[in-house]
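Q: I'm writing a short explainer about Gliding motility-associated ABC transporter permease subunit GldF for a general audience and would like to include a description of its predicted shape. Could you first generate the structure from this sequence?
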Amino acid sequence: MLAILRKEFNAFLSSPVAYVVIGVFLVATGLFVWVFPDSSVLDYGFADLQTLFNTAPWIFLFLIPAITMRTFAEEKKAGTIELLLTRPLTDGQIIGGKYLACFLLALLALVPTLLYYYSVYKLGNPVGNIDSAATVGSYIGLALLAGVFSAIGLFASAITRDQVIAFLVAVVGCFLVYSGFDSLASVFEGSPAYYISQLGIATHYRDISKGLIDSRDLTYFFSLIVGFLLATRLVLQSRNW
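A: Of course. Here's the predicted structure. Afterward I'll give you a sentence or two in plain language.
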Protein backbone atom coordinates (compact mmCIF):
# COMPACT_ATOMS: atom_id res chain seq x y z
CA MET A 1 0.00 0.00 0.00
CA LEU A 2 2.84 2.39 0.81
CA ALA A 3 4.36 1.71 -2.60
CA ILE A 4 1.05 2.61 -4.27
CA LEU A 5 0.80 5.70 -2.07
CA ARG A 6 4.28 6.89 -3.05
CA LYS A 7 3.65 6.16 -6.73
CA GLU A 8 0.33 8.02 -6.81
CA PHE A 9 1.53 10.97 -4.74
CA ASN A 10 4.69 11.38 -6.83
CA ALA A 11 2.54 11.18 -9.97
CA PHE A 12 0.42 14.04 -8.66
CA LEU A 13 3.46 16.15 -7.79
CA SER A 14 5.14 15.49 -11.15
CA SER A 15 2.04 16.66 -13.05
CA PRO A 16 0.27 20.04 -13.10
CA VAL A 17 -2.72 18.56 -11.24
CA ALA A 18 -1.37 19.12 -7.73
CA TYR A 19 -0.23 22.66 -8.38
CA VAL A 20 -3.43 23.65 -10.19
CA VAL A 21 -5.58 22.22 -7.39
CA ILE A 22 -3.60 23.88 -4.61
CA GLY A 23 -3.33 27.14 -6.57
CA VAL A 24 -7.05 27.33 -7.35
CA PHE A 25 -7.96 26.49 -3.76
CA LEU A 26 -5.68 29.17 -2.29
CA VAL A 27 -6.68 31.85 -4.80
CA ALA A 28 -10.39 31.17 -4.32
CA THR A 29 -10.27 31.07 -0.52
CA GLY A 30 -7.92 34.08 -0.44
CA LEU A 31 -10.35 36.16 -2.50
CA PHE A 32 -13.26 35.30 -0.23
CA VAL A 33 -11.31 35.77 3.02
CA TRP A 34 -9.37 38.94 2.16
CA VAL A 35 -10.71 40.64 -0.99
CA PHE A 36 -14.44 40.33 -1.65
CA PRO A 37 -16.16 43.04 0.44
CA ASP A 38 -19.18 40.88 1.34
CA SER A 39 -17.01 38.23 2.99
CA SER A 40 -13.63 39.86 3.72
CA VAL A 41 -12.32 39.50 7.27
CA LEU A 42 -10.97 43.04 7.03
CA ASP A 43 -14.44 44.48 6.35
CA TYR A 44 -16.26 42.02 8.59
CA GLY A 45 -14.62 43.44 11.71
CA PHE A 46 -14.40 40.19 13.69
CA ALA A 47 -11.25 38.11 14.21
CA ASP A 48 -12.41 34.75 12.90
CA LEU A 49 -12.00 32.57 9.83
CA GLN A 50 -15.61 31.58 9.38
CA THR A 51 -15.50 32.77 5.78
CA LEU A 52 -12.74 30.26 5.02
CA PHE A 53 -14.57 27.37 6.66
CA ASN A 54 -17.87 28.24 4.97
CA THR A 55 -16.27 28.55 1.53
CA ALA A 56 -13.72 25.71 1.55
CA PRO A 57 -16.29 22.83 1.45
CA TRP A 58 -17.82 24.20 -1.75
CA ILE A 59 -14.40 24.58 -3.37
CA PHE A 60 -13.41 21.07 -2.23
CA LEU A 61 -16.63 19.81 -3.82
CA PHE A 62 -15.09 20.50 -7.24
CA LEU A 63 -11.36 20.24 -6.59
CA ILE A 64 -11.25 16.84 -4.87
CA PRO A 65 -13.16 15.11 -7.70
CA ALA A 66 -10.60 16.70 -10.04
CA ILE A 67 -7.89 14.92 -8.02
CA THR A 68 -9.63 11.55 -7.78
CA MET A 69 -11.08 11.29 -11.29
CA ARG A 70 -7.91 9.77 -12.77
CA THR A 71 -7.17 7.20 -10.03
CA PHE A 72 -8.93 4.21 -11.61
CA ALA A 73 -10.52 5.64 -14.76
CA GLU A 74 -7.17 6.49 -16.33
CA GLU A 75 -5.72 3.07 -15.55
CA LYS A 76 -8.76 1.34 -17.07
CA LYS A 77 -8.59 3.43 -20.22
CA ALA A 78 -4.82 2.89 -20.59
CA GLY A 79 -5.12 -0.83 -19.84
CA THR A 80 -2.65 -0.68 -16.94
CA ILE A 81 -5.23 -1.73 -14.37
CA GLU A 82 -4.81 -5.39 -15.34
CA LEU A 83 -1.05 -5.11 -14.80
CA LEU A 84 -1.62 -3.51 -11.40
CA LEU A 85 -4.05 -6.21 -10.33
CA THR A 86 -1.59 -8.97 -11.24
CA ARG A 87 0.89 -7.61 -8.73
CA PRO A 88 1.09 -9.26 -5.29
CA LEU A 89 -1.31 -6.67 -3.89
CA THR A 90 -4.78 -7.03 -2.44
CA ASP A 91 -7.65 -4.84 -3.62
CA GLY A 92 -7.63 -3.20 -0.20
CA GLN A 93 -3.98 -2.21 -0.52
CA ILE A 94 -4.53 -0.72 -3.98
CA ILE A 95 -7.56 1.24 -2.83
CA GLY A 96 -5.87 2.31 0.39
CA GLY A 97 -2.77 3.59 -1.39
CA LYS A 98 -4.73 5.55 -3.98
CA TYR A 99 -7.12 6.93 -1.37
CA LEU A 100 -4.37 8.13 0.95
CA ALA A 101 -2.54 9.84 -1.94
CA CYS A 102 -5.67 11.81 -2.87
CA PHE A 103 -6.44 12.60 0.77
CA LEU A 104 -2.89 13.80 1.49
CA LEU A 105 -2.94 16.08 -1.54
CA ALA A 106 -6.19 17.64 -0.29
CA LEU A 107 -4.61 18.16 3.14
CA LEU A 108 -1.56 19.70 1.47
CA ALA A 109 -3.85 22.36 0.01
CA LEU A 110 -4.99 23.25 3.54
CA VAL A 111 -1.50 23.77 4.98
CA PRO A 112 -0.86 27.25 3.46
CA THR A 113 -4.16 28.51 4.93
CA LEU A 114 -2.52 28.37 8.35
CA LEU A 115 -1.05 31.72 7.31
CA TYR A 116 -4.63 33.05 7.36
CA TYR A 117 -4.95 31.97 10.99
CA TYR A 118 -1.63 33.58 11.89
CA SER A 119 -2.62 36.82 10.13
CA VAL A 120 -6.01 37.04 11.85
CA TYR A 121 -4.37 36.12 15.17
CA LYS A 122 -1.99 39.07 14.81
CA LEU A 123 -4.66 41.46 13.50
CA GLY A 124 -6.97 40.80 16.44
CA ASN A 125 -7.48 43.50 19.05
CA PRO A 126 -6.01 42.51 21.43
CA VAL A 127 -3.54 40.24 19.65
CA GLY A 128 -4.72 36.64 19.80
CA ASN A 129 -8.40 37.56 20.01
CA ILE A 130 -9.57 34.57 17.98
CA ASP A 131 -11.43 31.43 19.00
CA SER A 132 -8.62 28.93 18.54
CA ALA A 133 -10.71 25.95 19.69
CA ALA A 134 -13.32 26.62 17.01
CA THR A 135 -10.57 27.13 14.44
CA VAL A 136 -8.94 23.80 15.29
CA GLY A 137 -12.35 22.11 15.18
CA SER A 138 -13.05 23.65 11.78
CA TYR A 139 -9.73 22.39 10.41
CA ILE A 140 -10.51 18.92 11.72
CA GLY A 141 -13.93 19.17 10.08
CA LEU A 142 -12.35 20.18 6.76
CA ALA A 143 -9.91 17.27 6.97
CA LEU A 144 -12.76 14.82 7.61
CA LEU A 145 -14.74 16.40 4.79
CA ALA A 146 -11.77 15.97 2.45
CA GLY A 147 -11.59 12.33 3.54
CA VAL A 148 -15.24 11.71 2.65
CA PHE A 149 -15.02 13.55 -0.68
CA SER A 150 -11.86 11.59 -1.57
CA ALA A 151 -13.66 8.30 -0.86
CA ILE A 152 -16.65 9.36 -2.99
CA GLY A 153 -14.33 10.45 -5.81
CA LEU A 154 -12.42 7.16 -5.69
CA PHE A 155 -15.68 5.23 -5.97
CA ALA A 156 -16.79 7.38 -8.91
CA SER A 157 -13.50 6.75 -10.70
CA ALA A 158 -13.80 3.00 -10.13
CA ILE A 159 -17.16 2.70 -11.88
CA THR A 160 -16.15 4.24 -15.22
CA ARG A 161 -13.33 4.47 -17.75
CA ASP A 162 -13.99 8.14 -18.55
CA GLN A 163 -12.35 10.75 -16.31
CA VAL A 164 -14.93 13.41 -17.16
CA ILE A 165 -17.79 11.10 -16.17
CA ALA A 166 -15.91 10.18 -12.99
CA PHE A 167 -15.53 13.89 -12.20
CA LEU A 168 -19.22 14.64 -12.78
CA VAL A 169 -20.42 11.63 -10.78
CA ALA A 170 -18.12 12.58 -7.90
CA VAL A 171 -19.27 16.22 -7.90
CA VAL A 172 -22.93 15.20 -7.86
CA GLY A 173 -22.28 12.58 -5.18
CA CYS A 174 -20.36 15.01 -2.97
CA PHE A 175 -23.05 17.67 -3.39
CA LEU A 176 -25.87 15.28 -2.50
CA VAL A 177 -24.11 13.95 0.58
CA TYR A 178 -22.98 17.41 1.71
CA SER A 179 -26.02 19.58 1.01
CA GLY A 180 -28.74 17.36 -0.41
CA PHE A 181 -30.13 16.17 2.91
CA ASP A 182 -30.29 19.72 4.27
CA SER A 183 -32.31 20.76 1.23
CA LEU A 184 -34.61 17.77 1.68
CA ALA A 185 -34.99 18.49 5.42
CA SER A 186 -36.19 22.03 4.64
CA VAL A 187 -39.33 20.49 3.11
CA PHE A 188 -40.29 18.93 6.45
CA GLU A 189 -40.81 20.27 9.95
CA GLY A 190 -40.10 19.05 13.46
CA SER A 191 -38.50 15.65 14.09
CA PRO A 192 -38.46 14.44 10.46
CA ALA A 193 -36.50 17.54 9.42
CA TYR A 194 -33.99 16.97 12.24
CA TYR A 195 -33.39 13.30 11.46
CA ILE A 196 -33.10 13.90 7.72
CA SER A 197 -30.56 16.71 8.25
CA GLN A 198 -28.52 14.37 10.45
CA LEU A 199 -27.95 12.16 7.41
CA GLY A 200 -26.05 14.93 5.62
CA ILE A 201 -22.46 16.05 6.11
CA ALA A 202 -23.24 19.75 6.54
CA THR A 203 -24.89 19.31 9.95
CA HIS A 204 -22.00 17.30 11.39
CA TYR A 205 -19.44 19.63 9.82
CA ARG A 206 -21.10 22.65 11.47
CA ASP A 207 -21.09 20.88 14.85
CA ILE A 208 -17.37 20.10 14.64
CA SER A 209 -16.64 23.66 13.44
CA LYS A 210 -17.90 24.94 16.78
CA GLY A 211 -14.93 23.26 18.44
CA LEU A 212 -17.03 20.43 19.89
CA ILE A 213 -15.53 17.11 18.80
CA ASP A 214 -18.37 14.66 19.37
CA SER A 215 -17.83 10.92 18.92
CA ARG A 216 -21.12 10.72 16.99
CA ASP A 217 -19.83 13.17 14.39
CA LEU A 218 -16.53 11.31 14.09
CA THR A 219 -18.38 8.00 13.76
CA TYR A 220 -20.52 9.49 11.00
CA PHE A 221 -17.54 10.71 8.96
CA PHE A 222 -15.53 7.52 9.37
CA SER A 223 -18.59 5.40 8.49
CA LEU A 224 -19.03 7.30 5.23
CA ILE A 225 -15.34 6.91 4.36
CA VAL A 226 -15.32 3.18 5.09
CA GLY A 227 -18.63 2.70 3.29
CA PHE A 228 -17.47 4.28 0.04
CA LEU A 229 -14.10 2.50 0.17
CA LEU A 230 -15.90 -0.83 0.61
CA ALA A 231 -18.15 0.06 -2.32
CA THR A 232 -15.03 0.75 -4.38
CA ARG A 233 -13.66 -2.63 -3.39
CA LEU A 234 -16.87 -4.33 -4.53
CA VAL A 235 -16.55 -2.58 -7.91
CA LEU A 236 -12.97 -3.83 -8.29
CA GLN A 237 -13.93 -7.33 -7.26
CA SER A 238 -16.68 -7.44 -9.89
CA ARG A 239 -14.02 -7.18 -12.66
CA ASN A 240 -16.69 -6.22 -15.18
CA TRP A 241 -14.25 -4.20 -17.26
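A: For your explainer, you could say: Residues 132-158 form the longest helix (27 residues).
Q: Perfect, that's easy to follow.
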